[in-house]
Structure formats: C-alpha cells, structure tokens
C-alpha cells in the first residue's frame, strides 16, 4: 500500500494523470529487455576419471552388476588377441563383475614379493593375470578349431552350450564331475602341504 501511495504522489508531482499512458506503446530500451538465452542442444558432459575400485557398475543395492559370459571354469580356450595370441589353455577362475578370466600359464606377470621375516630374502614370482573374456574363444581339442558358442535344449530338457562349428557339446555331466574331483584334490593337497611344512 505504501508503494502505491508513493507512486501516486510521484505521478501527481509530474503533473501527469495515471491514464495519460493508456493505450500507448513505450519504447523498450535494449538494456532493459530480458536476455533471450537459447537452451543448449548438446549439454556439456562432465567426464570424471574414476579409480580402479570405483569403475564397477552397480545395482541400486550397491552390489556389483554381474555380466553374462560365454565361458566357464574348466573350458579350453584359445587367445585370439593380445600379447599371448594363439596360446591354448584352460580357465581356472572367472570374475563376472568385470568379465575377465584367469587362464593357466597364460598372461604371466612378474611380481616382486617382500620378505615376510627379517632373515628371509624377497622373491620374484610369476602370477597369472586376468584377460578380458572377449579376447578368447572356445577351442575344440578333437577338431583343433576355435568356435563361437551356441545354446540349445536337449531331449531331456537340459540347456547346454555347444560349439557352433563342430556341434560338440561342452556342458556334459562327465566334465563337471572331473572338475569337482580336481577341485577336491587341490583342496586336500593344500592342507596336507601346510601340515608337512609346519612339522
């Protein structure tokens, strides 16, 4: 109300009535006109380089997103790209969160180990580093060819993987039994070696 009264008093001081500008266009100065800002069509993307442990894609519950892989533990594969191209080996471990695999005696890296006690010297050992699963293909030992993997249902209703080139079924019960027996032998040998070293 006070602002209205002040406006009316200023108009009276100018000896102009409030209706004197009615129906007339006032010139708009460029300095008083509102700025016309066009929305950007391509907004600027902020790219942040993440640390190695922050690169995992996560679900809403913060668990890592697991990728589907065409290979499993125990499969015979051939490396198709990279430093070890052409080498054939067997998969010993898979990491589904970043789609990498560890193959026996392939992609060996040198690691310098510090001594655990004061009197012992350090060691230089070779370890198997992971390879991305897209750099390998399944290998048939019988036909000696690499092939892509396919999926099909057997007559008994089991879904199995097979090699497209040769038709050879990879997921058989015998293979899984052999893998389980080999894993049991490794776990039995490891405690036995620890007990002999301790005595």
From TrEMBL:
PANTHER family registered for this protein in UniProt: MITOCHONDRIAL RIBOSOMAL PROTEIN L24
Keyword Ribonucleoprotein appears in the UniProt entry: yes
GO biological process, one term: translation
One cellular-component annotation, GO: ribosome
Alphabetic keyword roster: Ribonucleoprotein, Ribosomal protein
Domain KOW: start-end pairs: 70-97
Annotated TM spans: none
GO MF annotations in UniProt: RNA binding; structural constituent of ribosome
Record family assignment: Belongs to the universal ribosomal protein uL24 family.
Native organism: Hibiscus trionum (Flower of an hour)
UniProt name for this protein: SUPPRESSOR OF VARIEGATION 8, plastid ribosomal protein L24
């Amino acid at each position: 109300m006070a602002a209205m009264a002040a406006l009316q008093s200023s108009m009276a001081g100018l000896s102009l009535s409030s209706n004197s500008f009615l129906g007339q266009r006032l010139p708009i100065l460029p300095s008083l006109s509102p700025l016309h800002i066009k929305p950007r069509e391509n907004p600027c993307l902020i790219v942040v380089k993440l640390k190695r442990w922050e690169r995992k894609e996560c679900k809403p519950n913060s668990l890592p997103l697991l990728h589907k892989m065409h290979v499993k533990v125990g499969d015979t594969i051939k490396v198709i790209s990279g430093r070890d191209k052409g080498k054939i080996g067997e998969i010993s471990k898979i990491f589904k969160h970043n789609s990498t695999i560890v193959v026996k005696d392939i992609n060996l890296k040198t690691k310098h180990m510090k001594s655990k006690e004061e009197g012992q010297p350090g060691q230089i050992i070779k370890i198997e580093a992971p390879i991305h699963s897209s750099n390998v293909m399944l290998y048939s030992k019988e036909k000696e060819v690499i092939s892509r993997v396919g999926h099909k249902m057997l007559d008994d209703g089991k879904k199995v993987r097979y090699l497209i080139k040769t038709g050879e079924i990879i997921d058989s019960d015998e293979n899984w039994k052999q893998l389980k027996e080999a894993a049991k032998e490794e776990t039995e040998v490891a405690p036995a070696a620890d007990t002999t070293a301790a005595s």
